[in-house]
Amino acid sequence: MDLDFTMEEEQFRAEVRAFLKAKLPARIADKVRTGKRLTKKDHEEWHAILHERGWLASHWPPEYGGPGWTTAQAHIFDEEVSLAYAPRVVPFGVSMLGPVLIKFGSSAQKKHWLPRILDGSDWWCQGYSEPGAGSDLASLKMSAVRQGSHYLVNGQKTWTTLAQYADMIFCLVRTSTEGKKQAGISFLLIDMKSPGVEVRPIITLEGEHEVNEVFFTNVRVPVENLVGEENMGWTYAKYLLTYERTSEARVGAATAALSFLKQIAQTEQKGGRPLAEDPLFAARIARVEIDLENMKTTNLRVLAGSGSSAAPLELSAMLKIRGTEIRQELASLARIALGPYAQPFVSEALDEDYQGAPIGPDYAAGIAAHYFNERKLSIFAGSNEVQREIITKVSLEL
Amino acid sequence: MDFQPSADRSMLAETLGRYLQKRYPVEVRHQISSSTAGWSPAHWRELADLGVLGGLVSESAGGFGGEGFDIAAIFEQLGRVIAVEPFLGTLMAARALALIGGHEALMGEVLTGSAMLAFAHEEPTSRYDLTSIRTSAKFDGTEWILTGTKAVVAHVEAADHVLVSARVSGTEGDQTGVGLFLVKRNAPGLSIQGYPLIDGGRAGDLHLVDTPSTLVAEAGYPVIEDAVAAGIVALSWEAVGIMDVTRMATLEYLRTRRQFGVPIGKFQALQHRMATVALEIEQARSAAINAANALQGDRIKRERSISAAKYTIGRAGTLVAEEAIQLHGGMGMTWELPVSHFAKRLTMIGHQLGDEDHHLARFIKLGEAV
Ligand SMILES: Cc1cc2nc3c(=O)[nH]c(=O)nc-3n(C[C@H](O)[C@H](O)[C@H](O)COP(=O)(O)OP(=O)(O)OC[C@H]3O[C@@H](n4cnc5c(N)ncnc54)[C@H](O)[C@@H]3O)c2cc1C
């Protein structure tokens, strides 16, 4: 066993660093570091920069525009972009739909949609959850009825992240009510500008507009937009979810958050000394740091073992649970580190053009809001309870 | 031993509870919270008329309460509706003045709701340490002038008079040499950076530059400690009120939300989580009872119970808040759901008057003194 990176891999790391230094706009990195609001334009700008370098779709095969990296390279890249405070690439097109189209899409679909994901022509969102179908996703009701050359779609999706920016949505729809509920689901690509699509904001607890309800009333969708076979959508959806969950390990992001936390703990004072030297707080940091070190290796083991970024079900469940727990704990510790200054919250202070004086330390503005927002990590992409159910079922062979 | 509240206290709690349940539903609370002032003078006057403010201080100071369990009765009800009114600062400042004695006129105005007080002690770098005071007080021959900054002072913009701690002598970290001063809201050299809080409340940083003030106590530290102890009893009971409501709402959700063809409360994984929540809330209630009971007693015993309560409330509060959000799934993440606001307030109570780690360390230290 050799856990060290090879010389070539370290060279690659240097190359990534040089690229980030030259190309990642300081303005955007600063926003990410301090928890400021990213605009649609910020996301698009970074997406275009990565695309230009050919590093956007790190896990796509080269023939579709991926860089052809090894697992180790993808890991190094993830770590470096996070440590440089680059924004996370919005995952819906690149990380979720892309792999599904590559594996199950028709050649016409691949030819049309994949380049548009890469060059940013389409902003995608994910239409899985419905009001009555959350953890029990297979009970979804939104219906698509075939009428000649199109489907007639009726129903509702909810919790749709950034649907307010989206050009396209990939949906799970019901095309049959016969047999097992999983058996009547299809995977459909829908233009958000179609007549009959309506997006309504849901405001999250800290006051952000990040998720939406999406209503579909007699929306006509061309049959060419069906991915794979009718009634086989559940298989594709599950394939996508393993990508989603494994990517929720977010080792790089956690590493960056840990380093930010340590900076805060050096700056904050307790009894005339840095908070980082307080034995109780130091122990809190140490625990999460150890957890993260362990998870880094777990993550690499899983990726090396599966040879791709889609891991076996129970392992991707483990990465999802521990990865999200670690990031939640890091957000929680940053909040605790602020002491009384975790309380003030001026939402406008998260905007780029805000002119007001900072309240308390200049890094404090977004930290408590971020902590509350990160509660979502253990709820979405299959809640952590559902992930534990998966591990239990697989290990008990029930 | 008798765990029943006295008849007077039950009546106060009932009157206040009835008023708040009827007049202060969550929509009203949000409206008040998002207003410029961040509190409601109209409600404040009505609550003063109901006698609620009198419950905060003792008879000798013109009130009819002021004991741990009086404070408990009031703040538990405030917690049940996550009220954003300036009760905490009023309690601490009024209690300090009552203890010092001799401010009958001002006290009278405060208890009738016609004058507002704020309690400004913590500073930007003090991190919950009550002795870490840098604000300086100097006597310039005719009056005391103060210079320094006070951090995250609850409802400081609302105050007509601010009770400010400042160093008369000694250095940061000394218990001796900390004086208490009254500063008028419109005093020269006083400025406030006011802001909303993430839990819906409002506070501000108070900046003083050569600001004239009136000395009310030269050896102020024991008074500050007592006022903060009362503040912690208040926060602990506010938390108990919040936790009870949060738990009931979550249980109701587990009964009604269906997934996989059954109410999610049927899943044993969630049942056990709610059992833990119930257990932790009962432990927290006991800690809050201990603290309320100890408020009148001997200092070391009082302060240990106070730190034990704040530690317990901090730990249990975070757990209850996080579980409530988690068990509501996506709904728990929404502004629309009242529980999310209860969860935010509960979490932020952990950032007031000392967090878990602070009070754990303090509990150990006070133990060494026994
Ligand atoms: C911020 C955010 C962004 C999101 N973005 C998207 C998106 O872009 N697209 C999309 O399609 N969806 C999205 N989701 C939806 C997300 O996937 C769902 O919230 C999630 O699947 C949980 O479903 P639910 O909210 O209906 O909760 P429920 O399924 O009602 O769960 C409620 C509680 O019950 C528990 N529970 C449920 N079943 C079981 C069981 N069998 N055993 C034990 N416990 C159980 C859950 O863990 C949870 O604690 C997002 C959600 C959030 C919060």
UniProtKB/TrEMBL annotation, chain A:
Cofactor(s) demanded: FAD
Any one annotated GO CC term: plasma membrane
Keyword set includes Secreted: no
Domain Acyl-CoA oxidase/dehydrogenase middle: 125-219
Keyword Flavoprotein applies: yes
UniProt name for this protein: Pimeloyl-CoA dehydrogenase large subunit
InterPro entries referenced in this protein's UniProt entry, alphabetically: Acyl-CoA_Oxase/DH_mid-dom, Acyl-CoA_Oxase/DH_mid-dom_sf, AcylCo_DH-like_C, AcylCo_DH/oxidase_C, AcylCoA_DH/ox_N, AcylCoA_DH/ox_N_sf, AcylCoA_DH/oxidase_NM_dom_sf, Mycobact_Acyl-CoA_DH
Lineage: Bacteria, Pseudomonadati, Pseudomonadota, Alphaproteobacteria, Sphingomonadales
Gene3D superfamilies the record matches: Acyl-CoA dehydrogenase/oxidase, N-terminal domain, Butyryl-CoA Dehydrogenase, subunit A, domain 2, Butyryl-CoA Dehydrogenase, subunit A, domain 3
Domain Acyl-CoA dehydrogenase/oxidase N-terminal: 7-120
Family recorded in the similarity comment: Belongs to the acyl-CoA dehydrogenase family.
Gene Ontology molecular function terms on file: flavin adenine dinucleotide binding; oxidoreductase activity, acting on the CH-CH group of donors
Keywords from the named record: FAD, Flavoprotein, Oxidoreductase
One Pfam short name: Acyl-CoA_dh_N
Residues in Acyl-CoA dehydrogenase/oxidase C-terminal domain copies: 231-394
UniProtKB/TrEMBL annotation, chain B:
Cofactor(s) essential for the protein: FAD
Acyl-CoA dehydrogenase/oxidase N-terminal domain mapped to chain residues: 7-101
Domain Acyl-CoA dehydrogenase/oxidase C-terminal span(s) in chain numbering: 220-345
Sorted UniProt keywords: FAD, Flavoprotein, Oxidoreductase
Xref: InterPro entries: Acyl-CoA_Oxase/DH_mid-dom, Acyl-CoA_Oxase/DH_mid-dom_sf, AcylCo_DH-like_C, AcylCo_DH/oxidase_C, AcylCoA_DH/ox_N, AcylCoA_DH/ox_N_sf, AcylCoA_DH/oxidase_NM_dom_sf
Annotated family: Belongs to the acyl-CoA dehydrogenase family.
Protein name listed in UniProt: Pimeloyl-CoA dehydrogenase small subunit
